[in-house]
Design a protein that fits this description.
alpha/beta; about 45% helix; about 10% strand; binds magnesium ion
């Protein structure tokens, strides 16, 4: 058995609102680095999000963008002053007797900064960032299969905040834990690109029973439901 954790909005509460910073970073990259005016940049992102699931997947496919350079630009803010330590999560991860990996569409540097700020970096056995999955991130099955390939025969518990990421995990036989804080960012922070995530959430939530096994509000609640999760995995 292995435990697969998402990074952003999962290792820390969504209300930390790093999404707004990521969103501004992505918009900044498209405008400042690619030289596309803001209004057009917005349209571009909306198109990519709908067609590829993430902006970077579209930028790579259609604009030949270097994903490493993109990630570095987008995640250039100071994580440490925003993300709080989570001693309960640390205690849980130290006690749980299975490999603990992070599967994220961010880069390794950002993931390490987040895990360090949360206080769990030394509890993580492996980080699968976008590069480690050949730049084919969630929700593409390749990302999940890449992790499973390194743990042959092991069943996985998959923990994420994004509803779109659960159906492929379910297809692959994973036990899914949805971290849903119920957080709604201030309307001024919901850019057109972020509204795609909200629309996607609304449309998928109706069917979530089909592919979500457990729902918790915060990641440290994994400790409370862990016995049931293990029972479900071993059934
Ligand atoms: Mg996430």
């Amino acid at each position: 058995m292995i435990l697969i954790l998402d990074c952003d909005n999962t290792l820390y509460p969504a209300s930390t609102n790093l999404m707004a910073l990521n969103d501004a970073g992505i918009a900044g990259y498209i405008t400042n680095v690619l030289g596309i005016p803001p209004r057009e940049a917005n349209e571009l992102r909306l198109g990519y999000l709908r067609k590829y699931g993430t902006t970077i997947a579209g930028l790579m496919a259609e604009r030949n963008v270097d994903p490493d350079e993109f990630m570095e630009y987008v995640h250039s803010y100071d994580v440490d002053s925003l993300v709080e330590p989570n001693p309960r999560l640390r205690e849980f991860l130290l006690a749980v007797n299975v490999p603990r990996v992070v599967l994220t569409s961010a880069n390794r540097a950002h993931t390490e900064k987040v895990a360090q700020a949360v206080g769990v970096l030394d509890c993580i056995d492996a980080i699968y960032d976008l590069k480690a999955v050949d730049y084919i991130g969630k929700p593409h099955p390749h990302a999940y299969e890449k992790v499973l390939g390194d743990f042959p025969g092991e069943r996985a518990v998959f923990v994420d905040d994004r509803m779109l990421n659960f159906p492929p995990a379910h297809e692959l036989g994973m036990t899914n834990v949805w971290v849903d804080e119920g957080y709604h960012p201030p309307p001024s922070d919901i850019t057109p690109a972020l509204s795609v995530f909200h629309d996607e959430m609304r449309s998928l939530v109706a069917d979530s029973d089909a592919f979500v096994d457990f729902t918790i509000r915060r990641i440290e609640e994994l400790a409370d439901i862990w016995p049931q999760v293990v029972e479900k995995v071993e059934r």
